[in-house]
Amino acid sequence: MKFRLITAFACLAMASANAQQDSLQFRKISDEILLNGTCYENLRVLCKKVGNRLSGTPAAAKAVTWGEKAMKAAGADNVWLQPADVPYWHRGNESLMIRRGDGKYQKVTALSLGNIEGTGGKPLEAAIVMVRSFEEFKTLPDNMVKGKFIFFNYRFRQDFPFTFNGYGDAVKYRWASPSIAAARGAVGVIIRSMSTGADDAPHTGSMHYNDSFAKIPEMALGNYTADSLEHYCMKGKVYAKMQSDCHMTEKLVRSYNVIGEIKGSQYPDRIITVGGHLDSWDVGEGAMDDGAGCVQSIEVLRAFKALGIRPKYTIRAVLFMNEENGLKGGLAYADSAAAKNEYHVLCIETDAGGFTPRGIGMEMSEVKKEKIRNFKNLFLPYGVYDFSQEEGGADIGPLHRKLDVPAAGLMPDSQRYFDLHHTNNDTFENVNHRELKLGAVALTQFIYLISEHELL
Length: 456
Known about the structure:
The chain has two domains: about 30-90 and about 250-450, Zn peptidases (Aminopeptidase), CATH 3.40.630.10; about 90-250, Glucose Oxidase, domain 1 (3-Layer(bba) Sandwich), CATH 3.50.30.30. It has 13 helices and 17 strands. It has helices at about 1-35, 40-50, 60-75, 135-140, 165-170, 170-180, 225-235, 285-305, 330-340, 365-375, 395-405, 415-420, 435-450; strands at about 80-85, 90, 95-100, 105-110, 110, 125-130, 150, 190, 220, 240-245, 245-250, 255-260, 265-275, 315-320, 345-350, 355-365, 405-410.
C-alpha cells in the first residue's frame, strides 16, 4: 500500500513538472511569434507584390516562387516543389444589367461564379423569376422556368453562432443551381451571395456542372442589390441582361505545391503536416483566404527554428495549390504520400481566416481526441478553448481519407469571415497583425504538444 502511494505521488509530481515545462514552452512560443514573427510581413508581400492568384495564372506561378523563398528564409531544412497540374478558369469581361417593366437597364455589381461558362461574350436577355429555395423552384410550372433567369434568393442564415454552419447550409445554391435550373430549360442563374455581410459586396466561389444538362451562366449579387431585386420581383416584371467571357480552358497548367520541413529529432519518418492553400480567387488579394493560412504555416517552421526546439516528429509546412476550384494540390500531396508509403501522424489546415483563434477542430477517433483534450487547459491563457468541433480542411481531406490520417483544423473567430470571403474586400488591410500571429501561436503550440508527447 505504501509503495502504491509513493508511486502515485511520483507520477503526480512528474505530471506537474511536465505541465510546467509545457506551459513554459507555450509562453516561449507565444513570445517569439508575437514579438519577432514574420507572418504579417510575409502576408503583406504576398498580397501587395503578388496579389490574387487564381490557379494556372502567371500570378499563381509568382506565388510559388514567393512561397519557396519564404520557406527558405524561415529556416526549413528542406524545401521543394511538388508538381500539380491544375485547371485554369478565365473570367474576362462580365456585366449584369437589370430593368423593371418597361424601364431602362441599369448596371448592378455582380460577380460570375468560378468555373462557370459565360454567355460567350454576347448579351443574354430574359425575364427573371425569383424563388427562395430549391423546394419552391420545384413547384414552378415549366413555362415559368423555360427561357428565364432564375434568381435563387436564399439568405445566408444568421442564426448560426458558428458561421461555417451557415455557409454549409447555403453553399449548395452556389454549387448546384445552374444545373438544377438548366434541367428545366432556364437560360441563366442569379444568386444571393454566400455572405453574412451588411454590405453590397458580391462573392464568387466555385460551382459544379452536371454534364447531363446545358452549361448556363451564373452570377452572384451582394446582399443590398439582392434585397433590391427581391423587392422588384415582388412588385412586377423584372428583366436581366447578362454578358460574360467566362470559360474553362481545355488544357491543365503545370503548377506546384510548395513544401518545407524540419526533420524530426527522434522520429524523422513520422510526419506532421500543417498547411494552407496558396491559390485564391481572382478578386481581392486572397489575404484571409488563404494567404493567412500560408504565412501561419511558414511561421510554425520559423518559430521552431528560432527557439531551437527540435521536434521529435518531422514538421512539414505545405502551401497547397488549387484548393479553390479543383483541389489538385491536395490530391497530388495525398498521392505522393501513398506512393512513398509515408507515415503521417497528423495533418492540420489553417483555412478559415486570420482572425483570433478560438479552437482546434479534430477529425479522428474519440480516443485520440481525448488524449489531446487532456492538455486543453494549456491553451486557455491564449484564448483557445474549443476542442469540440469536427473539423479538418479541404486540402488535407484527400490525405485524411486515403491514408486515414488524423486531421485537424485551426478555428478562428468566424463572425467576419463571410463578410470578406471570395470578395474584392479580402485584402491585407483587413487582417490584424496580432490576430494573425495568435493563430500561428496556437498552431505551433498544438504541433509542439503532439510531437513532444507523441500523442498520435
